[in-house]
Design a protein that fits this description.
With 243 residues, the protein is an all-alpha fold. 60% of the residues lie in helices and 0% in strands. Helix 3 packs across helix 12 and helix 4 runs antiparallel to helix 5.
């Protein structure tokens, strides 16, 4: 199959690699399939699921309970080893359902490298569901780097929620060490948004009033980290696991 470096820009964008970046994690070895997944596999094990990982309806929970006996480790690994956000998100979701803690390093390295967009929040949820010391270590490493690089606006908020969730269930205080960087991160984003809109206003003077109104609506980001959604999601996941 094509490796990341063999993909052209259009293929990279489609896969979710919309931002190319060099990080301290670039040399970590990602899990990669030996061969391309088949179209039949994609239709059976990717397409029905990748947009549904946040579906917690009764119908979906029962569907996943019924599906669980068919989710093999090979299915999970084929998804995780494909260079695409759709497959990787699905593989991570299946790993949560199957409590595949032995795949923690594969998912953790995917999170740290952030090679494709959209999948990071699913990696974070899966690692939080595993609730191991290594889960927290991956989150801390991620936040130590990515909060200090706000131009790489990836999954900082999702990882903070995951880490705070672990703090709340375990009585730990990992997230406290990242709050100062998070505040700086949010301030950078706030001023970046304003500067971007001001630049647009200069190039589109006929849109001045509309853009000024958008600037006036902007407020500094709230530093509160709300984990209520995480607890609800974990209840639904545990129903699938124990169903």
């Amino acid at each position: 199959m094509k490796k990341k470096k063999e993909l052209n820009q259009r293929e990279l964008h489609s896969a979710g690699a919309t931002v190319q970046h060099k990080s301290p994690f670039s040399e970590l070895e990602s899990y990669v399939n030996e061969n391309d997944i088949t179209e039949e596999f994609r239709k059976e094990w990717v397409i029905p699921f990748y947009f549904q990982t946040s579906n917690y309806s009764e119908e979906w929970i029962q569907k996943m309970i019924d599906l669980k006996p068919k989710i093999s480790e090979n299915v999970i690994l084929q998804n995780l080893g494909d260079f695409n956000w759709r497959t990787r998100s699905t593989g991570s979701y299946f790993a949560s359902i199957m409590e595949s803690k032995h795949l923690e390093d594969i998912i953790g390295i995917h999170l740290l490298k952030s090679e494709v967009c959209y999948a990071g929040s699913e990696y974070a949820f899966t690692l939080a569901s595993f609730n191991t010391k290594k889960s927290a270590d991956y989150f801390n490493k991620y936040l130590d780097y990515y909060l200090k690089n706000p131009q790489l606006h990836f999954n900082q908020e999702a990882v903070l929620k995951a880490l705070k969730y672990l703090d709340e269930v375990n009585g730990t205080h990992h997230v406290d060490g990242h709050l100062s960087d998070y505040e700086t991160f949010l301030k950078w984003r706030y001023h970046h948004q304003i500067n971007t809109l001001e630049s647009i206003k200069k190039s589109l003077p006929n849109k001045k009033e509309e853009i000024d109104a958008r600037i006036a609506e902007l407020e500094p980001m709230d530093t509160k980290i709300d984990t209520s959604g995480y607890f609800k999601a974990m209840v639904s996941l545990n129903r699938i696991i124990n169903g």
